Each structure stands twice: as structure tokens, then as C-alpha cells.
Amino acid sequence: MLEYIILGLLMEGNMSGYDMKKTIDLSIGMFYKASFGSLYPALKRLTDKEWVSVAEEEGNSKNKKIYSLLPAGRESFILWLGEPLALSRNEFLVRVFFYDYLDDKTRHLRLTEYMHKLNQEIGRLHAVEQIVAGELAEIPDPQKHYFRVSVLSYGKHFFNMEKEYVEQLIKGAEQNHENKNQ
Amino acid sequence: MLEYIILGLLMEGNMSGYDMKKTIDLSIGMFYKASFGSLYPALKRLTDKEWVSVAEEEGNSKNKKIYSLLPAGRESFILWLGEPLALSRNEFLVRVFFYDYLDDKTRHLRLTEYMHKLNQEIGRLHAVEQIVAGELAEIPDPQKHYFRVSVLSYGKHFFNMEKEYVEQLIKGAEQNHENKNQ
DNA sequence: GCCTGCATGTAACTGGTTACATGATTGC
DNA sequence: GCAATCATGTAACCAGTTACATGCAGGC
């Protein structure tokens, strides 16, 4: 995934590996960690694939390398960005972080698909909860499984939170669209 | 972490590696994935450390191995369980899943500590949001950064959700306690 | 002259995954 | 007799971390 994050950062403008690390820490750092030990090898791979190009900054006499996005890199990035959103927190958020670069149609499709997945999960969790409640009623000390059972409730909290967020996202994107066409 | 999950499962009773995989998938599977390729080596390590013991089931003629918790394993598990809760979703939830085995006092302490951390994070995010809002007001096309900025809102949603969940957890644990003493 | 921050890189290690190999048991 | 599921295990691989090594630049 790191490779696509790098490509995404380069969509905004050229920068060095060091800058990328800083940008990642300050933006998606909350849910994605990048270390130099993973960043620099990733940049090497991207350069080898010719998805990005390097320019050694000579004027400043620093041994600093500025990376730029090549057309093949841009294509791969947009392709990756348009893939369906999976029910995995990090991937979901990283993609959404770059969703300003995705076309309105695909974006709306992916977000609605994701909503359906969330609803399915919530339904599934609800069913599991019913079963567990029945099982708990038949054992002597149900309170001894309080925390064990509570993680199901966490799941529901979590998916409902994501649902709210995605709903807001869709609404907000529509309003953005309207403003643009004014 | 997998080693501690195995120990936690064995707290409830003896089982085979295969059973562990099934149990994990059905309980914490939502936020923790275990594969046989990681499970079996982990069981090997635990046996070598003498934290668990193995019994080859012979009566059934199956080549099935039943694992049990040894005292050293139980100790290590309880020690691990009582460690402070970090702001990392998986670790947090896996520990809470096993919190029925933790003493009331440590449990209450760890949950309250975690609440403080959540409040700090929410405050920090709020501050970042203010700064970003100011920066957005000064650029020509703020709506072009709609999704990029929205992940901050996700962060707030997320931490507030966890806060609600932990609040509920603390309240529920207290009520459990009262019922026990009736 | 020294500390901090900028800047790049690598080697050893860790904790996993995927895919494969093997074989017993159960139900139809 | 065959498919599904139970059951264990390993080897190749992968993505990442930590710790280290190196050196320049700027401020005090």
C-alpha cells in the first residue's frame, strides 16, 4: 500500500523521501505508519518500475533526491484508487484520503457499495448477538462473559460510526458538486 | 500478540490448534486474523517456553494435539493482560476481549487511563481541525481538499465512538459487580 | 565546536501470509 | 468410493520494523 500512498502524495507535487515521511506522519499518520526503512526501499522499487523519476538536487549541494510522478505511476494510482473499498479500516481510510483525485461517478459508486457492506456487517453482527444472548441465558454465570460479549457491541458501534461518516461523506460530496456548478 | 491470544483461549479450557483457529475466527476474527502458518509455529514456541503443554490424543487414534495452559503461561497471560491499553485498535480490543480474567481494580484503572488518552486525542484532533480550517480559508479551491480533510472528521468520529464504548464498559462492569455482591 | 534537524540508506530481524504436502475421519 | 472437513505442519515469500551508519547544514 505504501507505494500507492507515495504516488498519491506525488499527485500534489514533487517531494523528497524525507518530506513524504513528514507529510504521512502529519496527515494519515493516525492510521498509517511509515518508517524510513520501508519508505526508501519503496521509492527504489517505484523508480525501477519507472512509475516515478528522481532528480538529484545539485544547486543546493545537498544530497537530496526529489521524486516526481511519471505517467505510468499516475495511471496505476488512479486505477488503484478506483478499486472497491474493502472492510479494512486502513485501506478504506487511505483510499478516501485521496478521493479528491477520483472522478465523481466511481467515487459515489464505491462509497455506496461500502455502505451496503457496512449494513450487511451490522445485520450479521445483530444476528450473532441474538444467538449469543440465547446461549448466555442458559449458563449459570453470564456476567463472567461480559467483556467477551462486549466486543460484539464494539463491532456494532464501529460499523455504525463508519456508516454515519460515509453518509456524511456522500452528502458533502454532493453539496461540493452543486457549489462547483453554481 | 498471537501467543497471548492462545494463552487467553486456553484459560477457558484445553483445545487443539485447529479449534483455536475456529474460535478466533468466530470471536475476535472481526479485528484479528490468525492463519495456520502463524498459529502452529506460535504453539511450538509456547511449548518450547513451557507456557503450555501438549497431549497427543491417542484414544481417538486421530493425530490431534490438545494443548493446556501451564502455570508459567497463566502468569505471563495475566501480566500481559494487565498492561496499559495503547491507542491501537487491535491490541485494545484483544485485551478487552479477555478482560473477564482481569481483576476489577486493574481493569477499572486501565479503562479510565484509556478514556483519558481518548480525550487527549480528541482534543488534539480538534486543534488540528482548527488549524486546517484556517488554512483552507486562504486557498482558492477548498472543496478540492474535501476528502483529504474529512479523515480528520473520521478520527473524531472514531475516538468518540470508542469513548462511548468504554464508558458503557465501565458502567456495565460496575453493575456486574453490584449484582455479584447481592 | 556542538547540537538539532535534514537527508539517505542498509542489514538483521520479526511477524506474518500463501501455498503446498500430508493424512485421517465422517457422511452420503 | 468420494467429497468435505478435520488436523498438522513447513517452505518460500513479503512487508514491515529497529537499529545502525553516514554525512551535510544552520543556529547559537
Automatic annotation (TrEMBL), chains A, B:
Domain Transcription regulator PadR N-terminal, residue spans: 6-76
Sequence ranges assigned to domain Transcription regulator PadR C-terminal in this UniProt record: 89-170
InterPro entries, A to Z: Tscrpt_reg_PadR_C (IPR018309), Tscrpt_reg_PadR_N (IPR005149), WH-like_DNA-bd_sf (IPR036388), WH_DNA-bd_sf (IPR036390)
Signal peptide: none
Family annotation (Pfam families): PadR (PF03551), Vir_act_alpha_C (PF10400)
The protein's name in its UniProt record: PadR family transcriptional regulator
Biological classification of the source: Bacteria, Bacillati, Bacillota, Bacilli, Bacillales
